[in-house]
Amino acid sequence: MKSTGLLISIFLFTGIWTSSALADPSGPGDFTSSRFSKSGLCSNCHGSSFGEWDGSMHSNADSDFFYQAMLQEYGVAAEAQGLPPEFCSRCHTPIGMVSAEIPPLDGSNLSEVAKEGVQCDFCHSIAESEGIGNAPYVLEPGDVKWGSRKDSESPSHEIEAHEFYNESAYCGMCHNIYHPANNLTLAATYTEWEESPYAEEGVNCQACHMTPGIVGFEENPGKAASTGPERTHVYTHYFVGANAFVTGIMGEGRHEKKAIEYLQHAASLEVTAPDSAEPGENVEVAVKIKNTGAGHKIPTGVTEDREMWLELTALDAEGKEIYHSGGLDSEGNIDPEATVYHTVFADSEGNPTVKVWEAESIISDNRIGPRSSVIEKHSFSMPQNAPNPISVKAILHYRSASQEHIDELFGEGVYSVPVIDMAAYPEEEKASTPGFGTTGTLIALTLGSFYKRRRKRPTYISGI
């Protein structure tokens, strides 16, 4: 669950607002949903931006079947434990939250505009924010639309420019999450960026997630509105992340493809291994996994569910497997000896949990920071009668959630979680080269390996 709720812990991002008196974050019942326009209306002038947003994870923030399944589980726990029912909805259906259409969490009271998730009029009605995390946005819906351009004009509405729209802190409102009761950090994508070299260099979230560039800023010439002037750069509205699972199942092929492309530009591998060994000799292999393209840790977001791991295979000269680590069994479970890069939360009894509302502490967090790297060391004994040379293959895998968790939520065989190859060694054109005594690197090799999955519309779980 990647969404946020009532503001628990605020640290002010200074220097953004000119006013010294900050308003309270918008809350349940502050507005009616009729104050907001459906995104289709915006498409009349902003067709390109609407087309990019349509089908994105922002547009599907409320209809996301994985989120909905977790939301219904949270709803039961929230009622039993006295947690705020709108905790997740504050980001996933913000219009539904501020218009008091949530609860109930089954969505039965949601208006059509609220079902649009993180939509146009919501984003451009944010007048200011009270900080980072748990969605402390202050809304002013109406005829004035907020944005970043001071020279914009529109025949349809008034425009107010706010430098905040060019700041990563805008994204940080929802992309940091704190537990609604114990304040434990559940997700910290913004903080990961803020503490990264990218922040020091002035590369903000928008530079990667709202431009055609995958790693860093890339200009996108065009018009922001059909009636507007030609500009050297117009921000895109795909808001691409790493979710190829939900977008794929929901039939959003464009966004699935972009998510895979982003994943395959995030990391690189370097492998050092001998090309020969004597029978019984210990063979040592070192694999360097480097975060080369993400301005935050990999993986990021709801990292109790995300899984990133290395698969390593060694073959003899006849192609016989002499070592293998990181494979999947017939049920889609990762080799228990493999290192999985993610966050492991513990409940009140110290047991691991993927239900963030149960989380009270962090057992481990071994994710890889921006421009940082880790080295995995593997070793095996050279088998008798195994001919040299030795060849080594390494693949860095990623999936949005464990197959076990998806099976628990929806039943076995309903959804297969795609496994995406983020990076691989050796490079494709070097795959037939015998021996790998030197170091090789591949950044974002497009292998496109997936589990076969059923393409079906999501099944929603109603509240208990």
UniProtKB/TrEMBL annotation:
<protein>
    <submittedName>
        <fullName>Cytochrome c family protein</fullName>
    </submittedName>
</protein>
<feature type="domain" description="Cytochrome c-552/4">
    <location>
        <begin position="42"/>
        <end position="125"/>
    </location>
</feature>
<dbReference type="Pfam" id="PF13435">
    <property type="entry name" value="Cytochrome_C554"/>
</dbReference>
<dbReference type="InterPro" id="IPR036280">
    <property type="entry name" value="Multihaem_cyt_sf"/>
</dbReference>
<dbReference type="InterPro" id="IPR023155">
    <property type="entry name" value="Cyt_c-552/4"/>
</dbReference>
